[in-house]
Design goal:
There is one protein chain. Helix 2 crosses helix 6 and helix 4 runs antiparallel to helix 6. About 14% of the residues have low confidence. By secondary structure, the chain is mostly helical. It has six helices and no strands. It has one domain. The longest helix has 21 residues.
Length: 125
Amino acid sequence: MKKHLQFIGMGAGLLVLFFAFVPGMMDDEIPKDVNEVLMTSCYGCHNNDGKNKDAVEALNFDQWNEYRVTKKVGLLDKIKEVVEEDKMPPSKFVEQQPDKKPTEVQKELITDWTKEASDALMGAK
């Protein structure tokens, strides 16, 4: 009986490891350092409680895990574009809350993540 339980435990452990390393299986997770920048500079408007309906409709981080792969890829490309062009966060927002503006290093972190995440998602299709 003990051997049987050990075998089941090892099998379950192997399954966890398998799913942790299969490309695309973990694509819903946003790296911690990227998430910190998103929470500071983007999440305030792009969430379920966002006051600007256009911002929420364009991108809602609370819904990220529910988006289809194709939508995520499109959003990642758009995030990269607006961050590189300094369109987000909006200038009015930054004027009112300058501490929310991402630094050049943070912008590079976001754009690198968007490329890597998009490539990973495209490989998972």
